[in-house]
Amino acid sequence: MTRCKTTGFLLRSRRALIRVYCGLSPAVIVMPMCATFALLSAACSVVVSSPTAVGELSQQVADGKSVTIATKNGGVELIHDPAATAIEITARIRCAGETEEKAAERVKATRLVAVREESGLVRIGVEFPSDGRSGVDGGTFSKDGATIVVRAANLDGIDVMTTNGGIDVGAFAGPARLETSNGSIKIKAHAGPIEARSSNGAIRASGVRAPILADTSNGGIEISLADDAEGEIELDTSNGNVTIELGKAWQGTVTADTSNGRIELSGGEVVTKQGTRIMTVGDGSKAKATIDTSNGRVTVRGARK
Question: In angstroms, what CA-CA distances link 166 with 76, 92, 160, 198, 299?
Fold first, then answer.
């Protein structure tokens, strides 16, 4: 696609995405049917995006007890499958290259790595081939990425880190540490402590236990605790609504604060101190729930006993 800021023209190349940014003088543009040619003034600059190719890799690991997953430019999904006899891993690969052929060659040279340690921890990642360039990211293209799907019957511990992709976790156990720099996080029926962080995306968890920490800089947070959940809760977003439904077993003190939005607390004794709403549910000394957003509504619902 070619766009001139002065004229607003759009052009498309068959093999590469081309963006054209023009200065004060318009560009003279010729558009044959099957190709794009642009005669630009000296004030124009051209940025060409590299072609990409895709592929898929898979692997199985027996006797795995927990997983650590690291990828980039792609999401991570962990599926609870009681029928699985091993940890089944699928990686959907995308590689860039100077040409379509070189991109396809780089896909073929990409490796899915899954290593089981003596403890039962399985480390999962993708190794992209270098393109021979020096510099950032070991000479790999910034568009390289992998979406990883893991299917397992049981996992007692999950550690996931990705960029530019969401994280979706099924009903597993053990500590869950989930982090993405640009994507949403979804957690369902996880039985263990949760730490979920996103710099740009919503965080949603249902049927989970505590302690739980959810932190995002741009997105809403929705939490629904399991009936037997007890423990500390910390929810923080700088731009979004926060909603939490407490389980029947949860007791403690809820502190809620927002600089721009309503605060609605129900299911306990509510007081206001210096603009901060505080609710006591049962024995207020048992746990703390701290909820903070700078631009959004806060809703806390205590379970009906």
Answer: 6, 14, 11, 9, 25
Residue 137 phi, psi dihedral angles, 5° rounding? 65, 30
Give the chain's residues under pLDDT 50.
1-47, 134-138
3-state secondary structure 134-175: CCHHHHCCCCCEEEEEEEECCCEEEEEEECCCCEEECCCEEE
236-294 pLDDT per residue, tens: 998 999 999 999 999 999 999 998 999 999 999 999 988 789 999 999 999 999 999 98
Peptide bond into 51 cis (omega under 30): no
Q: What six digits make up the tokens of 169?
A: 């976790």
**What is the pTM assigned to this prediction?**
0.82
CB count in 10 Å sphere of residue 164:
15
Residue 50: predicted pLDDT: 78
**Per-residue tokens: 55:** 């592929």
CA distances to 76, 198, 234 from 68, rounded to whole Å, are 11, 17, 24
